[in-house]
Amino acid sequence: MLRNTDFKPLYASGEDEPSDFFIDGLCNSKYLDLGLGYFRSTGFKSLAFGFASFIKNEGKMRFVINDSLIEKDKIAILNGQQQEEPDEEYEQRLINDLHHLMKTLSKRDEHFFNCLSWLIASDRLEIKVVVPKKNKVGIVHHKFGIFTDSNQDRAVFNGSVNFSEFALKRNVESISCEYSWEAQGMAKLRIDQIRNLFEKTWSGQSEVVRIISVEQVKVAIQNWFPKKTVKELIETERELLVKEVIKAPNSSQIEINRAEQLLANLTLNDLEDTDRQDTIPKLREYQQQAITNWKKNGYRGIFEMATGTGKTITALAATTELLKDKKRCYIIISCPFIHLAEQWMDEAQKFGLDSILVGESKLLWEDEVARQTQLFRRKKINVVMIVTTNASLTSKNFQEIISPVTSETFLIVDEVHYAGATSIREVLPENCPYRLGLSATPERYGDDDGTALLFKYFGEIVFQFSLKEAIGKFLCPYYYYPIPVEMATDEFAEYCRLSRQIAKYYASNKTKLKELAKMLSIERARLLNNSRSKIDWIRNNLQDKPIDFSLFYVGDQIFDDVKRILGTELNIKLHEFTSRQSRLKRKQLLEDFSKGELQSLIAMKCLDEGVDVPPTRVAYFLASSGNPREFVQRRGRILRKHDDKKFAIIYDLISIPPMEFIEKGKESDVYNAVCSAITKEYKRVQEFSSMAENRFDSINEMFTIADKLGLADIT
User: Boundaries of each Helicase ATP-binding domain copy (predicted)?
Assistant: First the structure.
């Protein structure tokens, strides 16, 4: 405990060394909040000792650091030469700095980073980078910290120390310290002020600095320094203490005594709780059946499982079963989007599976993937797990690295319908013995050839678990309200013109005209999704509708108008969720939405696949699709279970022709166009209504419209 440690009120170079304070703090606390100044690799050596003890004590850290890691950046900032950059550029510069520093790391430096990687992978280290706000000159230069133990005793420091070797060992540096168990008067006030300063900076409330996200920096550290066990970290630190301090010829007796004390306290006893694996999720009966079917099919096949029913968990459990059977495997998991890949990494941790993220800049992954692949080829390691995006999977660099090991590879492709595309299909390794595809809708819409080739590669669907089976047990029930809204006269006229052109081109034997017909069909669908009448409905009908925890799916052409009405006219706390936001920004928006800080998210397609928003209570579909995959995915997003969520509500705005044309029925001279507009919409309404709690009421209005056109029996 902190209060049992022989702390000093002042640490200064040449007397009681500042590094001694940090070692004692790390060894005797469970929490460290640290506001760092200038932070260099040369400081890692001075801070490496003590981290293993902190980890063994189940410690947690929060770091606030400035955006400069190397000398040239510091000089540029101090001289006012560095212009304000976008957050992503700050983050990329930090990654470049780290990559540069890696080339000169010593054994002790590597130990420091291995400890950081363990803390990150175990969700025990959070890092935020601060930069001066616009028009604020100079480098962010906070240097303070708070150690806290399990009794809530605190040891607080403030001073001139920077985290470089020169600062901690060679400069004339000093820190003054306060201790909560003996603090009174001004000393107590200083502790409170330092704590408040850290929390204010951490929460982004500071008036002089702003926070930039460093998720990719954390990913880089984890990729470059794969997670070790606590036992390995302790053994390494003990080895370094002996070799670099106790037996080193230049060590002083004071340094030797301290190292021997650390060595005595840093034992391998009582590691069961610290080194335990996270609890592997318990499988549901249907998930276990899926795995059994896949194994019986020769470790090949496709799981067709409804959104929200645990495809990821099932696939990872299948991975552990394969490893039990085969002992040795090179695992590749490919996903269409980077946020999906990150979710896979998090879930894999629950199974004790460490992975390397391959996506975005190859600087983040190329060297480590190549190194791990070589170790696997030489049989130095038996398991490698790569989580990649489809784009990186198809890249030349990645294909060259993995080509020697594909005969021992287990390939999992999430949202496997994407793999039917030529660009992906052509790089799938033919000699890969173990294959698993995952999707709620594995068939490719409008692409029978791509679907056939997909099934040829992965094998048959070995397990199905439908939305109907899941609702009420694993997904929440829902109420469905289809709302017909009439297109404007000019919009329907354009719809009719496009329909005539499409029919003409499809009737042709010319391939180019058939392709043109497909393009016009997309244009016609956009017309339905962007009808101006939907804007009017939003303006006039939301006052008595639920808004908290709501999603709005909106067509691209009316998107800005709807967003303005929701935010400015109706004063709804919302934010758009589109490709215009960075990946990190979208992650923050989902967190704000989950906390209730945002009432609504308004999206086009970014919420279709792989984005978990369980708190969602209500969805407004202003843009829909005839593609079953898209509306199945959207419905699944809404139906995920969550605390205090008993059911979900879906409002579906259906674009229909003006009623005067519907009332004429077969007597209308544009009857075919009217039927075309109604048919696809009616099929979707039938599908959504069939599983809704209000299934009989929800279909009535659209059934009446369909019946007027002789379409009531269409399914």
Answer: 292-460
The 10s digit of each residue's pLDDT in 250-260 is: 888 888 888 88
Closest CA to 57 of 2, 108, 110: 2
Q: How confident is the model at residue 265 (pLDDT cuts 50, 70, 90)?
A: confident
pTM of structure? 0.67
Same domain, 338 and 444: yes
Q: Do 482 and 447 have their domain in common?
A: no
Looking from the CA of 674 toward its CB, the CA atoms found within 13 Å total 24
Query: Cα separation of 106 and 309, whole Å?
Result: 47
The enclosing domain of 122 has a CATH number of: 3.30.870.10
Q: Of the residues 227, 246, 273, which one is the last residue of a structural domain? A: 227
Greater confidence (338 vs 462) lies with 462
Task: Tell me what percent of the residues of the chain surpass a pLDDT of 70.
Answer: 84
- Return d(Cα 388, Cα 414) in angstroms, integer: 10
Same domain, 461 and 483: no
- The CATH number of residue 405's host domain is 3.40.50.300
Give the amino acid at 57.
N
Q: Do residues 556 and 675 make contact, with C-beta atoms less than 8 angstroms apart?
A: no
- For 516-542, the pLDDT digits (tens) are 988 998 899 999 999 999 999 999 999
The reply to whether 495 and 597 lie within a common domain is yes
For residues 13 and 161, what is the distance between their CA atoms, to the nearest angstrom? 10
In this prediction, residue 79 has a pLDDT band, given cuts at 50, 70 and 90, of very low
Mean pLDDT over 411-421 rounds to 92
Same-domain check for residues 324 and 408: yes
Give the integer Cα–Cα distance in Å for 24 and 30: 12
DSSP 203: T
Give tens-digit pLDDT for 128-155: 877 777 544 443 456 788 999 999 999 9
**CB-based contacts of 267: which residues, under 8 Å, 6+ apart?**
234
Bridge partners for 31 per DSSP: 60, 148
Can you give 80-108 as a three-state secondary structure string? CCCCCCCHHHHHHHHHHHHHHHHCCCCHH
Tokens of 57: 């004590």
Burial class of residue 669 in the structure, from the number of CB atoms within 10 Å of its CB (0-12 exposed, 13-18 middle, 19+ buried): exposed
| Domain C-terminal end among 465, 493, 511 | 465
Backbone angles phi, psi at 98, to 5 degrees: -60, -40
> Following DSSP, what letter does each residue of 603-672 receive, concatenated?
ESSTTSSS---TT--EEEESS--S-HHHHHHHHHHHHB--TT---EEEEEEEEE--HHHHHHGGGSTTHH
Higher pLDDT, 627 or 271: 627
Sequence-distant (6+) residues with CB within 8 A of 252 are none
